[in-house]
Design goal:
177 residues, 67% strand, eight-stranded antiparallel barrel
Amino acid sequence: MFKKLFVASAVFITSSSFALAAAGAPYLGASLGVVDNTSTNNNFRGMPLTVSAGYGATVSQSLYLAGELFGVIGTANLDNNAMMGSVKTTYGYGASFIPGVMLSDHTMTYARVGVVKSRFTNFNKTVTGGQLGLGLQTSITQNWDLRGEYDYTAYNKFSGISTKADAFNMGLVYKFE
């Protein structure tokens, strides 16, 4: 199922990037958040630092489409309650398709549909997950936007463990217009 989600995301990202080439702009972003990884017997709470690069455009008066690549470059420990091995993730990367609806000239709400690979340190495994998210982004200057987002990730089962993650992120996006 995650392979299908990955292929669908790649197709959406590629097709939206080609379709938006005339009207869009690339962007870079960075965010800091709180992530809760949970499984049956374990949970981990951390503070990930994420960087992103994407290409997006408003394709009609109220419809926005983007494709984004992102990477979690580090996760600080906040709480680690492990009975049978921590479900801590240290780094990861992924790709997302981001459709949005413009609420005004400067603010939009958006969804995130993507695939992520995260490194579970104590299990020495990199695991794939499907990701869904909701967010709000607003302009603070001509090129800078403020972004707030919630993401849910369901990972493939590994070492007999089913793990999910809930993440809340705040960040800045710089648009090259």
